[in-house]
Amino acid sequence: MARYKKGVDGNYRASIVIGKTESGAQRRKTVKAKTIRELELRLSELKSQHDRGYNFDASKLTVEQWSENWLRLYKDTSVGAKERTNIRSILNKHILPQVGYFAVVNVKPFHLQGILNLQAGKSKSNTVKINAVMKQMFSRAKQGGILLDNPAEFLELPMTSSSVRRSLSDIERSAVLDVCKTHRAGLWVLMMLMCGLRRGETIPLTWGDIDYSTGMLTICKAVEFVNNRAVSKSPKTQSGIRTIPVPPPLFERLMRDRGNENEFIFTPAKSKGMLTETNCKRLWNSFYRELDIYLGAELYRNKIVKTSFKESVTPHVLRHTYATDLYIMGVDLKTAQYLLGHADIKTTANIYTHMNANMLASVQSKQAEYYSQTANKLIKIV
After folding, report:
1. 311: confidence class by pLDDT, cuts 50, 70, 90
2. What value, to the nearest 5°, has the Cα angle with vertex 274 and ends 270 and 277?
3. What is the largest CA-CA distance in the chain?
4. C-alpha distances in Å from residue 349, one per residue of 165, 168, 244
5. Is it the case that residue 1 has pLDDT exceeding 50?
6. Confidence check: pLDDT of 379 > 50
7. What is the rounded CA–CA span in Å between residue 294 and residue 299?
8. Contact criterion met (CB below 8 Å) for 311 and 164
9. What is the DSSP string of 11-72?
């Protein structure tokens, strides 16, 4: 007991060596307490932290400062520009406003759970992304000795809304095909609907990617948007590179509009370059508006005041419709995986299972209607 000295302030003090300075001198960390028992507990905790690799110099590092270090060290050279933009957006919109000014060592699980809880009832995919960013960022902080435990490790996802996987209805498909005849975006929309291309796969397509002797289309490029500009790159996975058949009606239109093989098929109105992100949004919004009006949207002074859609149509709905068509045509799962460019066959299987569930539900609905109409006859037969 005598080895601990009491200071003039009435507290006992002790210290341990936590490292060395650049000159080789010992660096020490001091703790103090009002009683020897409390001092020994704090000293034991300090030794435990040191043994576990805790970085005492980082005790004042804020979450905002660490997020910049984390992005620079672990993301700037390992992910694409689009993903870096998405991560920064998640940080700036959801995480830093809540805990950015906290010291990293002071962040507790309930702080981060509160961030996730703010997403209750909102997009499931976005909530999952927020959770992933927090887990990765604080996991690296733990790995670097800034934290002893990851406060994001055992968070619970709140109840959220899932995006609806759906295909075009027969009425919507008929309307899309009609609008495609005259709208500038028509060929672009048809390529997503009838070939199942992702939006990013349509943008770098050139006329030379079409084999006019066989009616086949080769997809070997994709794009990511960097500051609005489309930057061509290889598909995310090798599965994205594929050659697919072009349905005859679409092939006839491609033959009619055929350009030079090095020219892009889809271009801005006043240039021959690739579509920008803004171009794509405006093109889709224009097509969507015309489709909405075609299906009976209510207008007031040329502004849509009541949409005709129960559920919105997105470019991905077009691709999902293509997958539905493959299922209805009896295309086997492995071939569908190739045509859709899925790296994991589970992704294709999930779509096919979804289609099967929809069709079974449709049969069930028709059975219920049929038997309700024939109930009296059935009773007599029994």
Report:
1. confident
2. 95
3. 102
4. 14, 20, 19
5. no
6. no
7. 11
8. yes
9. -EEEEEEEEE-TTS-EEEEEEEESSHHHHHHHHHHHHHHHHTT--GGGTT-BHHHHHHHHII
Query: Domains in the chain, ordered, with CATH?
Result: 5-51 (no CATH), 63-143 (1.10.150), 170-360 (1.10.443.10)
Task: Give pLDDT, residue 374.
Answer: 64
Residue 174 CB contacts under 8 Å (≥ 6 apart), including other chains:
none
Cβ 223 vs Cβ 230: under 8 Å: yes
Q: What is the DSSP letter of 149?
A: S
pTM over 0.70: no
State which amino acid sits at residue 311.
E
| 373 pLDDT more than 50 | yes
- Dig out the tokens for 256 from the structure: 């009619």
* Residue 162 three-state SS: coil
Contacts of residue 374, defined as CB under 8 A and 6 or more positions apart, other chains included, come to: none
Closest CA to 71 of 81, 59, 57: 81
How many residues in the chain?
382
Q: Which residues contact 323 (CB under 8 A, 6 or more apart)?
A: 167, 196, 336, 340, 348, 351, 352, 355
Element (H, E) at 243: strand 242-245
Q: Please list, residue by residue across 54-64, b when 16 or more beta carbons sit within 10 angstroms of its beta carbon and e when fewer do.
A: bbeebeebbbb
Between CA 32 and CA 42, with CA 36 as vertex, the angle to 5 degrees is 50
Helix (H, G, I), strand (E, B), or coil: what is residue 197? coil
**Two tokens at 241?**
């590179």
Tokens of 49: 């932290």
